[in-house]
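tool_log.txt
---
The assistant was asked to compare two proteins side by side. It first ran the structure predictor on the initial sequence, then on the second. Raw inputs and outputs are pasted verbatim so the downstream comparison step can read them without reformatting.
(1)
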Amino acid sequence: AINSNLDQSAFSATRSFTVTGSGAGALSSPVLGALPFGTAYHPMDSFPFSWSAVAGASSYVVEASADPRFPAPVDVRFTTIPDPNYGLTFNSTLIGSWNLRVYAVDAAGVAGTPSNVRTFTISYAAPVGPAEGGEKRV
């Protein structure tokens, strides 16, 4: 509060709240498909993935986080993806376990709820990926 002399009082005690679910007319959650070639990749391996299209979506956001709670700021974030597919390549500074999700964004910039989460690892111990046009080698 501020009085007529512009003296400010102390702040009130901190409160918190959690918003869950989505409101009427909100975009639905995309369904993130299984990751290709298993869930372990070498640094600099590229892997594509896809998700279900969401009615009313004008773009999508892909997020990857080392923390499964996806605290802000998210570790890896790509925005304005026009189609329900994308691909990632992680370098050697990002070795470890990762969580991946995607959400839709409408034309007004309002985000829908996130997809299911897929987990993967970046490691030099990952199986050898597929040969071009072939199946995964182990």
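(2)
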Amino acid sequence: GDLLNPNQSPRTQYEIQTESGRLVLEKQQVVRHVVKSTALKQYEQAVAKIENTVAAHWDMAQKCTQAELWPQRDHHLQQLIKLDPTHERARQMLGYVRINGRWEQTDVWMRQQGYIRYKKRWRIPQEVAAEIAVEKRNQEQIDLKTQIHRWRTAILKGRSGASDATRELKGIVNPLATPILAELLQKKNEPRLLKMIYVEVLAKLGGGIAVDAMADRVMNDADERIQEVCLEQLAEWKSRRAIVFFVLKLQSSNNGEINQ
């Protein structure tokens, strides 16, 4: 029906004019208020009088397209092809394509070929699974980075949970933490206490990122103790990656780098 008091504020009642009379509902009786558009009202009036012919359904489908009434448009196109299965334009508008002389709905045919719809594209299942895995991995790394920064803040500010934060930070075994800790290790003015923890955890995790971060600290860290522990770890690993890094530094035009 029509809402007779649309501007009531604050809302206490819904006064509605229906075909059979006036109805009053208290606010708490109403779960949802759906307002029909003018186009939908006009459609509902017109569709009651429509003839079940190809021409009538085609005309109504065109009007629904102009009014952006998509479900209603598809309904009339479906009725149309029941009456005229050869109507090419109606088939196309409903997403049909002609394959081997037969009309097939694109969605149905693609699924039959083994494709799945993902992010508005048809993809093979293996591609979708790989992308989902990457997204999951990225989200896991974001969550881990947030947690590491929480622990770091607790330690820096000496909060009541600092000892627990230190234990949790040292106990990291997830390889996804490697680039996060490597970035923190290279952070300017990071306290020695935290850098020593980063080196300890990176030593457990290993990998090229950990090697690169420690080699960089050997060359560039202002704290000699950090330089020493990083160099000791690289020596323990017998890292060829680190050897190449340092040999290339011997070609530097900076005498300070060569001496280091």
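---
observation on (2): The chain has a mean pLDDT of 94. The CA atoms of residues 155 and 222 lie 21 Å apart.
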